[in-house]
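Re-run requested by the PI after the first attempt was lost when the workstation crashed. Everything re-entered from the original request form. Ligand of interest: iron/sulfur cluster.
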Amino acid sequence: MFYNEIMVKSVLSGLSLEELKALFSPLPPFRAKQVYRWIIRGTRSFFDMTDLPRDLQEELDFRFMLYSSQVSSRLADPDGTVKLRITLRDGAKIEGVLLVDGGGRRTACLSTQAGCPMACAFCKTGALGFLRNLDSGEIIEQFFHIQTAGTGTGNGPVDGPEIANIVIMGMGEPLLNLTELRRALGIFTDPEGLGFSKRRITVSTSGVIPGILDLADHGPKVRLAVSLTTADEDLRKRLMPATMTHPLPRLREALLYYQQKTGCRVTLEVVLLGGINTRRRDMDALADFAEGLDVVVNLIPWNPVEGLEFEGRPLGRPTVREIEEFSEGMTRRRLGVTRRRGKGLGVSGACGQLGESFTV
Ligand code: SF4
């Protein structure tokens, strides 16, 4: 191997096995495989790779970095949710969340962008604006930080119970960063990598049509969730201005296409905003939109974010009655409905609450 005098170390966390083999050439491929196996176990130092000779550990340590990010703060909610603030190599900040359900199953909620360009009125990340896309390594590193989040600082080797599910629902619009997301998903689902079933991974989009079609055509066949919020086109454009170029009839066609190609049921996420999208006409519009689609509607009572307004009025949580009526309204319209409990509210780690600020 040759060393440059001034060298920026390459980061290995987001590389596939094939990419590692190419990078390590002319070393024999089995060396890349050894390193890959250590990486996907969350190992943070080449010197912990005990099946590598010492001189190779030193050479790798000189040339490469395993991680480019580190946990800068960790907030734990009594309900089991842990929110991690993660600082990236350039100082940008993102957040990742560990969610634990009633049965103790652990889910990692990952971000794909620092900030978000979609500017949804009800979302704290949207209020930050957009800084940049994350690369595959930055997406994967969040998983390992979260894996250890329940037991320590999130900066150690993997030692907690296994994470059962991955949801790409953190900061950012995943389908605007599909190339890097796909690279990360490739490693998550690689049988020689983390070996996740595609059915245990959910990608949530605000409804970016080209991304849905791309995912349908080129995979991976993960579960898809769409933050619909409302199927009243006028209200949706006002709440989610960046979806203006993704009108509902075309979005519906794209979802139908996704289902035909993948055989997967799609989740329609509806963040319920008190007095805004809980009207009877919202229920009717949603039922019309869902007609002919295989969907389940996931109701998410809005999680408070201080300072967020919609058309000059402060946003508010829906009342219990609004939630009940909407849920019953869905059932009456023969739609499957689930309700998300507000996990992580104590640490502002719930849906729509991520992102203090993405800069240092
Ligand atoms: S809801 Fe999702 S798409 Fe909308 S601004 Fe927030 S992170 Fe971006």
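Saved to the shared folder this time. The domain at 10-65 is CATH 1.10.150.530 (DNA polymerase; domain 1).
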